[in-house]
Design a protein that fits this description.
19 helices, 2 domains, three-stranded mixed β-sheet, mainly alpha, globular, homodimer
């Protein structure tokens, strides 16, 4: 009976997956191909399919699967347990909110997104404020429906990173903050002068594309199971593990943006391509969490992509395409790729200071959701923290409080994933280097095979079979520990900036 | 009550439309963008969505709409009547076949398509024969379910061209056959020598693309509500009237193929873009029939696109892109574009001989479906008719009986639409010229506005609000009459070939 029921569930989940693949493909097309006038119809199309997907997830069929299977949990194998657990999680997350509330919220977010765009354009937080207030209010209400233990924000963290709490994250981020600020202050005292002029000039988009595609194949992205296209904001999406689509955006005035966003998205993409076929139709053929996903994109982008070893492969390649690098040495190239500067914009931040941008958002979100601060205080708070942690201050709201769109659709609790990705990545790296001390030598020849195999075996193939916490313990033998990332940063940046 | 019910039906049909738009978009992506390894998953995705679409069309909800609304037909306006009529047609066409039969048939066609590809590759009809026998057998069974009056083939014709019968079509095609053969025999006696050498050489694909896009915009295709991409076989698809997608295929060894397939698909596309917004969610925001659709593509491709007036606009443009045309005169260019040659391959046939290819298929299909000939006799029959009507004989099955894939998925009754498209087009042309005698002068300057407005007003905007028969009578004052096309052919080709 159990096997039969499990197979029925798998059939159902496979259909649910297919429907969501259709939505993802139609969304991808909207961002890459859609003609200008088709926007309204496309919105309706996506809304219709999303409603169907919502219905499938919150149906009595799902309720019955959960009720029928739950008594047999001790007879199930790991895969079956996780399958049921994830289904229950998603079902509850959706079902606990009254449908009319949810529909209202979707409308509010839709307006908030438009207001955010206008506000950013006008560099005026006041335009966005009333909308943000509503989004916060609804989010707080939703937390009441979902329930919480100690801290309301825990419920949001748990959505993106199963089992994560503010208690744990406070410790992690405090250690990270101290570490980054220590390194940053030493760098500020350094007399090292890094030249980046050769990264700016005119870089033909077609040539950038050729180079990006060559690098993408080199790092191990399978072009027979994926594509690289152009969109305003780079992203990765996939429809199963054999159709994984990345986008980038070529800026002709500088060299690194398109290439490294391609490598970043490539990391997400390689992860998706490597998830086991066996997980199809289980709801687990996805990344283990947002942070684990981000750990992979950042592993390829920063840990591998900006390593001195890979730079020594990349520089001659760059010279093939652009004369700008003719007289650039490996040291100059490597240092320019890893230039550190406390700055205002998160998405343009370097590997070192990036964490501080996230910690600022985390601290603000936590207080906001718990009602300790109000939306009207956000801007003051934001600017104060930027001054304090990074020593910079926004000249206007567009480069301050309005820079990210995440709050407009209520994605509170999401930002920490970005920073956690760096921590997971460095902890994976530590284990990798212990097991294979000379592995970075491969990068000098642009060889990624062995590293990819290791990541596939340890991380990728499992999809969401293990929780993030299980995964990091299985692989590294301990829970997430920020010390590995701080060590990695010190090792790298003290050397670059000649400090100790 | 009636209005309420009609609005409910519209809501239902709008959802059904959306689902089919999703399918069309996913299919388009498969033909243009999909990575190689994604084929299997894509097939499953399309199958799942097609099943959902099938369920929506054959649901009790639809049955109830039909039953509830049918008694009120005399109180409905034209739009409401046609809406119900088309729904009933589609419902019956699908519902009358037992579902298990239909599922078997889909499997048979899928295998037949693969067998057809192999057979064509091997140039061996024997590989395809057993599969075709099954497809024919099922088609004959389906006709029994659907019902028929005099001729079994009528049921198939009616699917693509509402109200068309073999009795009517025999007359039309006989007149057409006599006409074409008369013109063809005169051309064969002509001493006129047409040079086409300059159409062959090396034509850079990027340049062809630029030229095709320029011409596409000139003829009136709205690039803000559509796209042009590349696929192996050119086609047009759309998701509503504001997202219409054409494909073409650039062959670098010759000039006309990509350009004129772009203009052809552009004709289909302009039709779709011009269908009224008011028809959304009625099931009538589509072409009036396959043949009417084909009349528009051929109107742009042949009647306008290969006219001497448009050639005089096109030639200087072609010279901008390709030196090959440097010393080519307008007469030479125009004549090369309209070169007539009895040949073997339907898709490469000229405007004059094209009809004979269709008539051969029509005569064969009619006998085959009525059981007067067997699949094993097809090849002999095919070769005999090609010898008789066109004076050519296939050297192998790939350039004979296996050239088209239509039979592999049971599309019997579809071929006539192609030839009828030519007839409808010429009859529309006759009315247009009566109303606006000097209108072709516009084409010398690449101006299509007034012609497009006329076609939009008379044909396009109505979608499927009128049946093909109503449409041709409304516009030209009489039923479809092949004499207009024959007159058009005589006028054009007697002049080109200096005969009378």
């Amino acid at each position: 009976m159990l096997d039969k029921k499990i197979n029925e569930l798998k059939d159902y989940l496979k259909k649910y997956e297919k429907l969501n693949q259709a939505i993802a493909l139609i969304y991808w097309d909207m961002r890459t191909n859609m003609p200008e006038k088709a926007g309204e119809n496309r919105g309706e199309l996506l809304q219709y399919l999303s409603e169907e997907s919502f219905k499938m997830l919150t149906s009595d069929t799902v309720k019955n699967f959960i009720e029928d299977l739950s008594p047999y949990k001790d007879k199930m194998n790991k895969l079956q347990c996780r399958m049921l657990e994830e289904l229950e999680r998603k079902y509850n997350e959706t079902k606990k909110i009254p449908q009319e509330k949810y529909v209202e919220f979707v409308g509010i977010c839709s307006n908030a997104e438009i207001a955010w765009e206008k506000a950013k354009e006008a560099k005026d937080f006041e335009i966005f404020k009333p909308h943000l207030e509503k989004v916060v209010k609804y989010t707080q209400e939703f937390i009441e429906y979902w329930g919480y233990n100690n801290d309301k924000y825990d419920t949001l963290l748990d959505k993106y990173e199963l089992g994560l709490t503010t208690e744990k994250l406070d410790k992690i981020f405090n250690e990270l903050k101290v570490g980054i600020i220590e390194i940053l202050s030493k760098i500020k005292e350094s007399s090292k002068n890094i030249n980046r002029d050769f990264l700016y000039g005119h870089f033909n988009a077609e040539k950038q594309k050729e180079l990006s595609l060559r690098v993408l194949e080199k790092i191990g992205f399978d072009m027979k199971a994926g594509r690289l296209d152009v969109s305003v904001h780079p992203f990765t999406t996939n429809f199963g593990n054999k159709d994984v689509r990345l986008t980038t955006n070529y800026h002709e005035d500088e060299f690194t943006s398109a290439l490294f966003s391609t490598i970043h998205e490539g990391g997400h993409g390689i992860y998706e391509q490597n998830i086991s076929d066996d997980l199809e139709g289980t709801g687990l053929q996805i990344g283990a969490s947002m942070a684990i996903h981000e750990s992979q994109s950042r592993f390829y982008e920063n840990i591998l992509g900006r390593s001195k070893e890979f730079c020594s492969y990349l520089l001659p390649l760059a010279k093939e395409y652009f004369d700008d690098f003719k007289n650039v040495s490996l040291d100059e190239f490597y240092e320019a790729m890893n230039y550190v500067e406390a700055s205002l914009i998160r998405t343009e931040a370097d590997e070192l200071t990036y964490g501080l941008h996230i910690i600022i958002r985390y601290e603000i979100e936590k207080d906001l959701i718990n009602g300790r601060i109000k939306v009207e205080d956000l801007k003051k708070m934001w600017n104060k923290k930027y001054r304090e942690y990074l020593g910079v201050e926004p000249k206007n709201d567009a480069e301050g409080i309005l820079q990210d769109m995440h709050w407009s659709d209520g994605s509170f609790g999401y930002f920490p994933s970005y920073a956690l990705g760096n921590l997971y990545g460095a902890q994976f790296l530590n284990t990798l280097i212990n097991e294979k001390p000379d592995i970075f030598e491969d990068l000098k020849e642009g060889k990624f095979t062995e590293i990819n195999e290791w990541l596939k075996e340890k991380v990728h193939r499992h999809g969401a079979l293990y929780t993030p916490n299980e995964l990091i313990k299985n692989i590294t033998g301990e829970e997430l520990n920020p010390k590995y990332f701080i060590e990695y940063l010190k090792n790298k940046y003290y050397r670059i900036y000649n400090v100790k």
